[in-house]
Amino acid sequence: MEIKKVLVIEDNKEIAEIFKKALKEAGYQVEVRHSCAQAFTTFLMGLAFDLVLLDLILPDGDGIEILKYLRSSQKYKNIPVIIVSAKGQELDRILGLELGADDYIVKPFSLREVIIRIKKILDRGSRISLDILSVGPFILDKSKKAIYLENKLLNLTATEFKILSLFIENPHRVFSREELLEYIWENEKEYYSRVLDAYICRLRAKLDKYENLLQTVRGLGYRLVSE
């Protein structure tokens, strides 16, 4: 069985060492980073991890920026993230969870509880959240065939859902009109370019103040940007 690898991002070296020792005793591989700079360098190197244990108060920045980066990254967007922070106000917890953290633990903590929560997430096997993608203000739940905008369910037709989910799964990628038409009507012998225009217009209307995130790239096609 493959040994799971955990990345601990924690500036307090004593706490980081406690996590490292406990996680190794629980059977995990562990790496530790003590700052945002070290963490971002690790991610830019493309190193693989099965879970990130993230402190929010770091010496050179806010751990929330790391969380945002992970959730917008193609490589790391589905990696489980557990926040462990002294910032325990309700608004802090809500923000962390809304931005895509899988769990939020407030310091001081029970080490045993942290290990149990890590184990429960990693023991899911193929992570349930693989079916849940968060990109900018959007959350795509593929299993429920639902898309949420700022946590509010969008009222979409089946075709609108198909189009928008494609964009959410591939943020910033430009899709040509031909690619979109073939994707939407893959089994049809005929499809109509103007119908695609109508769907794009309707989607933009439903995105309301976020309509500009669904962009027309002149001469190339369309793309969805995260912010």
Q: What can be said about this structure in brief?
A:
The chain has helices at residues 13-25, 36-44, 63-72, 90-98, 111-122, 158-169, 177-184, 193-207; strands at 5-9, 29-33, 51-54, 57-58, 61-62, 81-85, 103-106, 132-135, 138-141, 146-149, 152-153, 214-217, 221-224. With 227 residues, the chain is an alpha/beta fold.
Structural key phrases:
2 domains; single chain; Rossmann fold; 8 helices; Arc Repressor Mutant, subunit A; 22% strand
Topology readout:
Elements: E1 5-9, H1 13-25, E2 29-33, H2 36-44, E3 51-54, E4 57-58, E5 61-62, H3 63-72, E6 81-85, H4 90-98, E7 103-106, H5 111-122, E8 132-135, E9 138-141, E10 146-149, E11 152-153, H6 158-169, H7 177-184, H8 193-207, E12 214-217, E13 221-224
Parallel strand pairs: 1-2, 1-3, 3-6, 6-7
Antiparallel strand pairs: 4-5, 8-9, 9-10, 10-11, 12-13
Secondary-structure element order, as H and E?
A: EHEHEEEHEHEHEEEEHHHEE
The Cα radius of gyration reads 20 Å
Oligomer: single chain
| Class by alpha and beta content | alpha/beta
Strand order of the largest sheet: 2-1-3-6-7
- What proportion strand? 15-25%
Name of the CATH architecture of the largest domain: 3-Layer(aba) Sandwich
Shape: elongated
CATH topology of the largest domain: Rossmann fold
How many H/I helices?
8
Average pLDDT metric = 86
- The fourth-level CATH homologous superfamily of the largest domain is Response regulator
- Structural domain tally: 2
Q: How many distinct beta strands? A: 13
- Tell me about the biggest sheet? 5 strands, parallel
Low-confidence stretches: 125-129
Alpha carbon gap, first and last residue: 40 Å
